Amino acid sequence: MKDFLITYKGYMYWVVGVLIAVIILRFLTNLLHNWLLKKELEKFPEEQPKTVNLVKRILNALWVVLGLIGMSFIFVGENKYAIILKNIELVLYLGLMAVFTIVAAATTNMWFKTSIERKVKHNDDPTSLQFLRNVIVVVIYFLGIVLCLLAFPSMRGLAHTALGGAGVIALIAGVASQEALSNVIGGIFIISFKPFKIGDLIKVTDDMVGTVTDITLRHTIIRNFENKMIVIPNAIINKEKLINYDLGELKCCERIEIKIGFDSDVDVAKRIMQEECEAHPLLMDNRSFQEKKEGKPIAKTALIEMSEYCVTLRVWAWAHNFSDCFQLKIDVLETIKKRFKENNIERPSPNRTIIFQDKKTDLETT
Q1: How far apart are CA 338 and CA 340, in angstroms?
Q2: Cα 94 from chain centroid?
Q3: 98 part of a folded domain
Q4: What is the total count of domains within the chain?
């Protein structure tokens, strides 16, 4: 045993030294993590410390990997020391580059988020900043990956090509599909021509109506009235004919249509629809000066269609914005129904007259 200790004493010292170094580095990493966590919670109490926790895990894993590589010195000859040192340099470079990339992206993202919140607070348009934020974060991660590729001799050609101006386009075109590229270009068009911006209420289809919450390189996100997030690829939203309720004048007209039976009194039904609309507090007086002078009603009513078993009445009701229009419509429909029932205004029901012909009798008569 004594001979064993004497023979391998140097190796044992090395292992113990490596273990102590790993423990110290992990201890210092945890101290730094706790300090950064405290500072982040003080400055951003509502944010989840995902970046700080991720950096801690990466660094702790890095120290363990370096420790394991360091211990491999005792298993190889001196002629292999240079290879181990290169491996240590490579792992250290990759680990620190990963930490730097993540920290740079998180810092940039946080700066943009603060700037966007400041713009929203002052009622400014944050759409350009939101889009630029996504672009820059993607660029930071892209550069981080390229710099990591430079550490491998066999990958340096690809990295140099990617860093070139034309190389970036060629690389993206090579790895991305045509649809992905059209989404990116669509996002750039949205930011450039601004058919809508973050915070606008838009309607893409009957099932896709909501407030724009984010515009990324690939897609646009809207929050509908059920508080559900709808993710729409930019290429699709650029092709659709959408309605932006917040572009230009906010006032809008709600056309409320109701069908009644042929035997119902049309004049009474029109009067009820007009009175209920004009009694609603959200109704907007959109009459011109001449119309007011002529005494025309605020809510115009008309019979617009006659079918085989009913007539369709319409009332035009104006409100200051889309939300008021929607609320006015649902309120008025309920009160109109109640008054229709009180005044015997019947809802239409299709009637059919069926004539049975006795073919046998007809034949005998003939």
Answers
A1: 5
A2: 32
A3: yes
A4: 3
Same domain, 17 and 137: yes
- In angstroms, the CA 302 to CA 265 distance is 13
Each residue's pLDDT expressed in tens, for the chain with a length of 366 residues: 556 556 666 777 888 888 899 899 899 988 988 888 888 777 777 777 788 888 888 888 888 888 888 888 777 777 778 888 888 888 888 888 988 998 888 888 888 888 887 877 777 777 777 778 878 888 888 888 888 877 777 666 655 665 555 455 555 555 455 666 778 788 888 887 788 888 888 988 888 889 998 888 788 999 988 889 999 988 888 888 888 888 877 888 889 999 998 888 899 999 999 999 999 999 999 988 888 888 899 999 999 998 878 899 999 999 988 889 989 999 999 999 999 999 988 888 776 677 777 655 554 444
Range of the domain at 202: 187-244
Looking up residue 218, the CATH number of its domain turns out to be: 2.30.30.60
The model's pTM: 0.54
In degrees to the nearest 10, what's the CA dihedral of 13, 18, 20, 22?
-170
Is residue 38 located within the same domain as residue 151? yes
E strand or H helix that includes residue 181 = helix 178-193
Clarify whether residues 239 and 262 are in a common domain.
no
